[in-house]
Amino acid sequence: MNPSRFFRVLQISSVLVLTLAMTGCTGKITKNRVEAEKYAKENPGANPYDIRIDNPDGSYDFLGEIQDKEKANGKSPVKEGEVMKYEEPVAGTPVELLKVGNDNKVTGGGTPTPVLLEKAAHISEWWTYHWTGKDKAPGTISLKSGDGKTYGPWQATLVNGVYWKTEPGITLPAGSYTVIDSDPETWSQNAGTSGHGSTWAIGWVVEEKNP
Q1: Same domain, 116 and 23
Q2: Any idea of the CA torsion for 194, 35, 30, 127, to the nearest 10 degrees?
Q3: Residues 6 or more apart whose Cβ sits within 8 Å of residue 188
Q4: Cβ within 8 Å of residue 2, ≥6 positions away
Q5: Could you identify which of 15, 64, 81, 88 might form a hypothetical disulfide with 33, taking C-beta atoms 3.0 to 4.6 angstroms apart as the criterion?
C-alpha cells in the first residue's frame, strides 16, 4: 500500500462471492468502482470482464465493459465514477487530504462516510456538500473514531450556498473514522459515493518523531 495515500474509503459490508447458478458471474462481485479497481490491481491475473460492480439501484456493470466505454470516449480508465482523489501529503503544508465525491448528478440522503487515517494528520478544514439544501442554514460536522470517541461536532459556515465548511484545527491519530453530518436529508450523495455523503478534508501529515 502506498504510504502517501493515507486515507481510504472503508467498505462497511463485505464482498459476497456467489455461484454462477445464482448470479451468472463466476468472478468477483464488488460494491463500487473503487473496490473493483482495487481488486483488479491486487489481482493482476483477474479478468476485468469477470469483476462485477453492483449498483445501489439493483443493476450491475462489469469493470471491463466500463473501461472499454471510457477508452472509446477518450476518457481515462479510472476517472468516471471515481470516489477518491488524493494529493501527495507534505508535513506542514495544507493539501486536500481526502475527497469522497464526483461530478455526477447528486441527491440528498447521504449516509455517514467511513474513512481510514493511516497516519496522524492535522485537520485544518472539513467540508460537506448540500446541493439539495441550497442556502439552508448549515449545521454541524463531526467524526467518530473506530474506538467510539467523538470529535466535534463543529459548527459549519455556509460557502456559496451549498458547501458546509468547518475548521476543526485538531490533530487526529491514525485509525478508522466515520464522518457524520447533522443534516443527512440534504447531504449530497450518488452511486459513485456508494450512497455515502460527499465530503473532503484539508490539512497535512504530522511527522512522527523518532523516540
Answers
A1: no
A2: -10
A3: 101, 106, 107, 108, 110, 128, 129, 130, 131, 132, 197, 198
A4: none
A5: 81
> Which stretches in the chain have pLDDT values below 50?
1-26, 75-88
pTM: 0.59
Helix/strand/coil for 23: helix
Q: Do 162 and 125 share a domain, yes or no?
A: yes
Structural domain count of the chain: 2
Tell me how far CA of residue 13 lies from CA of 31, 57, 90, 119, 194, in angstroms: 9, 17, 32, 24, 11
Q: Please indicate, yes or no, if residue 88 is contained in any of the structural domains.
A: no
Sort residue 92 into left (φ over 0), alpha (ψ -120 to 50) or beta.
Answer: left
pLDDT for 86-131, tens place per residue? 444 555 678 888 889 888 899 999 999 998 887 889 999 999 999 9
The secondary structure of 120-141, three-state, reads CEEEEEEEEECHHHCCCCCCEE
Residues 10/113, Cβ–Cβ less than 8 Å: no
